[in-house]
């Protein structure tokens, strides 16, 4: 038995193990840097699926990270379509937007991981909540 089963945290508090898994839910999206973007979705998805029945805080935070990364995927696809439809002229707009989105993704993901580790539920701004 782990410490959580022997000594559950007081009502309203999140255990350190659950906070750590919640942080992993957010920071697992960073694996997308190494996997060519696949990890942005797969990392939070795996943590959400594994923890959804046992750790509600970790599950909610992984789901929030998953929704955020799906939203950014949709935006990225829209920017790609814009580039193709304009025969490359849209790249004048797309490249600066892509850089800004990349920086925002990195900063918000790290901020979310830190907040989750503190036991604070983090909500990403401008996120479509597709997975309920």
Summed up, what is this model?
By secondary structure, the chain is mostly helical. The chain has helices spanning about 5, 15-25, 30-35, 40-50, 55-85, 90-115.
Descriptive notes:
By secondary structure, the protein is mostly helical. The protein has 6 helices and no strands. It has helices spanning 3-6, 16-27, 32-35, 38-51, 56-85, 91-117. Helix 2 packs antiparallel against helix 4 (38-51) and helix 2 runs antiparallel to helix 6 (91-117). The longest helix is centred in the middle third of the chain and has 30 residues, at 56-85. Residues 1-5 have low confidence and may be disordered.
Radius of gyration: 17 Å
- The helix-and-strand class reads mainly alpha
The ordered H/E elements are HHHHHH
What shape does the CA trace take? Answer: elongated
Give the fraction of residues assigned to helices: 55-70%
Poorly predicted runs = 1-5
Mean pLDDT: 90
Report the span from N to C terminus.
31 Å
Strand elements, count: 0
Query: For the report, how would you describe the main beta sheet?
Result: none
Question: How many DSSP H or I helices?
Answer: 6
Strand content: under 5%
């Amino acid at each position: 038995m782990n410490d959580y089963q022997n000594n559950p945290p007081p009502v309203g508090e999140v255990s350190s193990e659950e906070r750590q898994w919640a942080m992993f839910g957010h920071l697992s999206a960073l694996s997308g840097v190494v996997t060519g973007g696949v990890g942005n979705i797969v990392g939070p998805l795996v943590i959400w699926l594994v923890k959804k029945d046992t750790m509600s805080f970790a599950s909610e935070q992984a789901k929030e990270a998953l929704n955020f990364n799906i939203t950014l995927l949709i935006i990225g696809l829209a920017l790609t379509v814009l580039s193709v439809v304009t025969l490359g002229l849209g790249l004048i707009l797309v490249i600066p937007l892509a850089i800004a989105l990349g920086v925002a993704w990195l900063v918000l993901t790290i901020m979310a991981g830190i907040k989750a580790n503190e036991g604070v539920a983090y909500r990403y701004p401008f996120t479509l909540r597709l997975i309920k």
